[in-house]
Amino acid sequence: MSSYITTYTGKHFEPTNPDQEAICIEDIAHALSLITRGNGHVKTFWSVGEHCLCCAKEAAARGFSDRLVLGCLLHDASECYMSDIPRPFKKELPEYCEHENHLLDLIYEKFLGDSLTAEEQVQLKAIDDALLWYDLTILLGERPGDEAPKLQVMPDYAVRPFAEVEQEYLEMFREYSR
């Protein structure tokens, strides 16, 4: 059994011993457009890539820096290599979280120059949590107890071909990484 995964672009990537040089935006965009939110427990397909696009669009609409918009686009990029684990289970896996945080730091360092600041992390988490509220409400029909968070850009939950999501992800990445 090998210690690596083979990525979309044919790279051999070790999620537990990541090589920053092997991190590839094309792999991230492709995989995230195919990984479903909520571990597949949604009424219709909604990808992690779509979620990341919504987070980035919300950050842009709030007037945040290009760096934070790009950070929002990349905030789940580690899932390209490690998969998506639901929050309630993830918090019970400290070793997994350590690997994921290390990998995400490498991704941020590669594409942003360094990790997000504490303030940027707070801003990103607020957007991520707000969009989670809408995901739960629209994709599961579940009403979280609190009031709907205010968004500048309401997500469109229409199902789109994964290739379209992948292309938009890459275009947004290029636009904000100039």
Our estimate of the beta-strand percent is under 5%
Average pLDDT score = 94
Q: How many alpha or pi helices?
A: 8
Q: What order do the strands of the largest sheet run in, or round the barrel if closed?
A: 1-2
Number of domains: 1
What does the overall shape look like? globular
Helix content: 55-70%
The level 1 CATH classification is: Mainly Alpha
Which structural category fits the helices and strands?
mainly alpha
CATH fold description = Hypothetical protein af1432
Low-confidence stretches: none
The biggest beta sheet is recorded as:
2 strands, antiparallel
Number of strands: 2
Briefly say what this structure is.
The protein has 178 residues and is mainly alpha-helical.
